[in-house]
């Protein structure tokens, strides 16, 4: 990009944001002064961004995202809590340390293979997927099986858009997801050698096709931090967080229920379905209440299907939710 088109892109981008230049030398009340500072900061950030090589810049594909008003009625957890308290066992078991362990993890560019029982298998860059579908923002609850909970504005698109694009065959009944394998960059893949790496997860095809099942490439209106599963992750808001597999490299349509990492490690503790359910306790603790991230006291009641019962209960009609945990 030459500097002229650079300048043009910068100007029109600022115009889109509705940012106006504030005159120098004007006596400014504090609020305007503050605005001017953020203007200077955002234009500095923008120059820095436009100066980056294309391979890194591409990580911003799809932004700014469009807020989906149908999923915008919850108060998000503070961003700095969500990006600094993480379950990502590839980078160790200390939730506060994950963000300090992802330094060597390269998430751009990021290829994803989508295949198995489909008409049109494809291997494609995460940024290209974003260019196909664009990004919408949905604020979803996130409930970890360990009982901590958060509310996160995810930027992404429904998983069914991606699945429909590769055209599942009638024989496909489940979707298997695989995360990356690279013990040289992921210390947990060495220090937890008895874990069946890479991390795997799965959904029944009708669950995967449900409008709430989401693929995320960002959160809080920005590209996903590595510790939250860059470049591309799953978000299944009505299930325990371990189903929401991070840093996906492969999506495969299959005939039989796929093996999953947590289920292999503890079949009695981590069911394949793992729907959030206050009435089904984990063998080692109650699931009746949950602890919002950032609070010390004041646990709140766990919600059936994490608050999404109205939308998803029909998927499990006739199933014993205690047995098919
Ligand atoms: N690849 C991978 N994905 C993963 C995990 C993991 O260890 N590895 N942990 C899961 C668990 S237990 C939870 S609760 C969520 C946490 O997501 P967050 O750190 O973005 O809040 O990611 C899930 N996805
Ligand atoms: Mo979790």
Question: What can you tell me about this protein's structure?
Answer:
With 325 residues, the chain is an alpha+beta fold. It has 11 helices and 13 strands. It has helices spanning 3-17, 30-51, 54-57, 79-82, 98-101, 126-133, 159-166, 188-191, 205-209, 261-265, 309-312, and strands at 66-67, 111-116, 122-125, 136-143, 148-158, 174-179, 200-204, 214-219, 222-223, 233-235, 248-254, 289-292, 300-301. Strands 1, 4, 5, 8, 9, 10, 12 and 13 form an 8-stranded mixed sheet that branches. A hairpin with a 4-residue loop joins strand 4 (136-143) and strand 5 (148-158). The chain is globular, with a radius of gyration of 21 Å. The N and C termini lie far apart (53 Å). The model is unreliable at 1-46 and 52-58 (pLDDT under 50). Ligand MTE binds next to loops.
Summarize the helices and strands and which ones pair or pack.
Layout: H1 3-17, H2 30-51, H3 54-57, E1 66-67, H4 79-82, H5 98-101, E2 111-116, E3 122-125, H6 126-133, E4 136-143, E5 148-158, H7 159-166, E6 174-179, H8 188-191, E7 200-204, H9 205-209, E8 214-219, E9 222-223, E10 233-235, E11 248-254, H10 261-265, E12 289-292, E13 300-301, H11 309-312
Parallel strand pairs: 1-4, 2-11, 5-12
Antiparallel strand pairs: 2-3, 4-5, 5-8, 6-7, 6-11, 8-9, 8-10, 12-13
